[in-house]
Design brief:
Elements (H helix, E strand, L loop, with lengths): L17 E4 L15 H14 L3 E5 L5 H13 L4 E6 L3 H11 L5 E8 L2 H7 L4 H18 L3 E6 L6 H13 L4 E6 L6 H14 L7 E6 L6 H10 L4 E4 L13 H10 L1 H4 L10 H12 L20 H9 L20 E2 L5 H10 L6 H17 L3 E2 H12 L7 E10 L2 E10 L5 E7 L3 H13 L4 E9 L8 E9 L2 E9 L2 H33 L7
Parallel strand pairs: 1-2, 1-8, 2-3, 3-4, 4-5, 5-6, 6-7, 7-8
Antiparallel strand pairs: 9-10, 11-12, 12-13, 14-15, 15-16
Helix pairs in contact: 1-2, 1-11, 2-3, 3-5, 5-6, 6-7, 7-8, 14-15, 16-17
Bound molecules: 3-methyl-2-oxobutanoic acid (KIV) and zinc ion.
The site of 3-methyl-2-oxobutanoic acid (KIV) has 9 residues, from strand 5.
């Protein structure tokens, strides 16, 4: 059974590994990432095109914003199972169900820690109580939803027999998926596989439910551990695009999917992933989260298919397979074939966007067309990569954000860099600010601070060219630190100052929204009698 033309591998059910994407939940817990609902929906739609089996869309109890995003995805994204995370509390499970129930394929994912470290120090309870919590949570979730996933958190540092007992309770109560997380990225492939084999021996009925791996990358072993779990019998892998997630992140979706595809000869497993959508999904997530992909990252890094040494280049020119184990086209890194010019009309734009998988109509199409025209007037040719950048830039525009209305920048030898900006506030009021700075970008950022009456520290500033060439679109990412919290934003324009100012304003809007979300989370935690709602 070889790879099909869509990139998805056709294998028998027993060998089908389900891909559970947690970019929007565990991935979104990475510092500085704060996606709004429109951005989350865009990522979820792309995940559906990528062919993931399950989208963990968020943690609905965490804040009204999280709830709204999960609910919107459940209502609008077709294909994958839509899952919401919940602790064992009734309020969490009610919220998760309230948000996912609109999906044709809803799932509630509930979890409680089984390690003594967590039970004693975080939950401040005992093993018996945790057993009761697991039983009640799965039973309640099951009363709402046929598909219920249970995770014993920090299982790889927990007593194995005790964790097996808790898993057994979840299975008894009707859990359909048992996920065993390596929460702190501590286990090794051999140890994790051995643990799974022992669970199959100890837990009655485990062979009749779906088993799942969830591995963090603290020791760089997330993909290896997930693969070991699959070889030991698990058929769901929890992973995130670009390996995003708490601390060092989760198992990277693109790496595990290509490992399963490329080494099908040794294991016979397959996934439903349309691998040709991988590169695009990675770019979209990187753009919207403001998290760049390291150049040497496997599969999606800029250098993943580049050959530098003369010996390698010589080999690849003679025969590609001398130094390549997969083709760039397999992961969607083919040449940038769609090209529009400045005379292209609305229909041509809509067709090109459709070929790229974006179905845009009405106001959204008008906005995209306006942005396209602005770029096309300054750039000879607008390519597929440019279009992708323009469309995701439009998605980032949100009703409640600060907008750049106009800007002026002057710099040159013998004069102090100076900038003047005017910004439309979420209230509709237009404010202006003016400042000098260490350079023109610094002056523009200071002018924005003056206009908006805000103060943040610039934690990161990054400029990339979307494509090569002198007239390339510039893409700027700004990370701001405000009161100790990070928030990022990015902007795309042919003018690097404009892209920088827009990126700064988006980071500022995200930072203000983050502060509001944290307040809401604190209120929820207070109401539930604890301080940390995040898993
Ligand atoms: O890492 C972890 O344990 C988690 C659980 C909520 C599954 O993310
Ligand atoms: Zn996790």
């Amino acid at each position: 059974m070889g790879p099909s033309t869509t990139g998805a591998t056709d294998v028998s059910d027993a060998n089908r590994v389900h891909i559970f994407d947690t970019t929007l939940r565990d991935g979104e817990q990475s510092p500085g990432i704060s996606l709004n609902t429109a951005e989350k929906v865009e990522i979820a739609q792309q995940l559906a095109r990528l062919g993931v089996d399950v989208i963990e869309a968020g943690f609905p109890i965490a804040s009204p914003g999280d709830f709204e995003a999960v609910e919107t995805i459940a209502k609008g994204v077709e294909g994958p199972v839509i899952c919401g995370l919940a602790r064992t509390h009734k309020a969490d499970i009610d919220a998760a169900w309230g948000a996912v129930k609109h999906s044709e394929r809803p799932r509630i994912h509930t979890f409680v820690s089984t390690s003594d470290i967590h039970i004693e120090h975080q939950l401040r309870t005992d093993r018996e109580d945790v057993k009761g919590q697991a039983r009640a949570a799965v039973a309640l979730a099951k009363s709402y939803c046929a598909d219920v996933e249970f995770s014993p958190m920090d299982a790889t540092r927990a007593d194995l027999e005790y964790t097996a007992e808790v898993i057994g309770i979840a299975v008894e109560e009707g859990a359909t998926v048992i996920n065993v997380p390596d929460t702190v990225g501590y286990t090794t492939p051999e140890e994790y596989a051995a643990m799974w084999r022992r669970f199959y021996e100890l837990v009655p009925g485990l062979d009749r439910v779906e088993t799942s791996v969830h591995c963090h990358d603290d020791l760089g072993l997330a993909v290896a551990n997930s693969y070991a779990g699959v070889q030991a019998g698990a058929r769901q892998v929890e992973c995130a695009i670009n390996g995003l997630g708490e601390r060092a992140g989760n198992c990277s979706l693109e790496e595990i999917a290509m490992l399963i595809r490329v080494r099908e000869d040794v294991h016979g497993f397959g996934t439903g992933i349309n691998t040709r959508e991988i590169a695009r999904t990675s770019r979209l997530v990187s753009r919207l989260t403001g998290y760049p992909v390291q150049p040497n990252k496997a599969i999606v890094g800029r250098n993943a298919f580049a050959h530098e040494s003369g010996i390698h280049q010589d080999g690849v020119l003679k025969e590609r397979t001398t130094y390549e184990i997969m083709e760039a086209t397999e992961v969607g890194l083919e040449s940038n074939s769609i090209v529009l010019g400045k005379h292209s009309g609305r229909h041509a734009l809509r067709d090109a966007l459709e070929q790229l998988g974006y179905r845009i109509e009405g106001n959204a199409l008008n906005a995209a067309f306006k942005a396209f025209k602005e770029v096309a007037d300054r750039k000879k040719q607008v390519t597929a990569l440019d279009l992708e950048a323009i469309v995701s830039d439009e998605i980032r525009d949100r009703g409640d954000a600060h907008e750049l209305t106009s800007f002026e920048v002057t710099a040159g030898s013998g004069r102090d860099p100076w900038a003047k900006v005017s910004v439309t506030l979420p209230s509709g009021e237009v404010v202006t600010g003016e400042s000098t700075g260490d350079g023109p970008i610094d002056a523009a950022f200071r002018a924005i601070q003056q206009a908006t009456g805000t103060e943040s520290e610039l934690a990161e500033y990054k400029v990339d060219a979307v494509t090569g060439g002198e007239d390339a679109l510039g893409e700027v990412t700004v990370m701001l630190r405000t009161d100790g919290f990070l928030a990022s934003g990015s902007g795309v324009a042919t003018d690097i100052f404009e892209a920088s100012a827009r990126a700064y304003l988006r980071a500022l809007s995200n930072s203000l929204e983050g502060a509001a979300t944290r307040e809401a989370e604190a209120a929820t935690a207070d109401a539930a009698g604890e301080r940390t709602p995040g898993p």
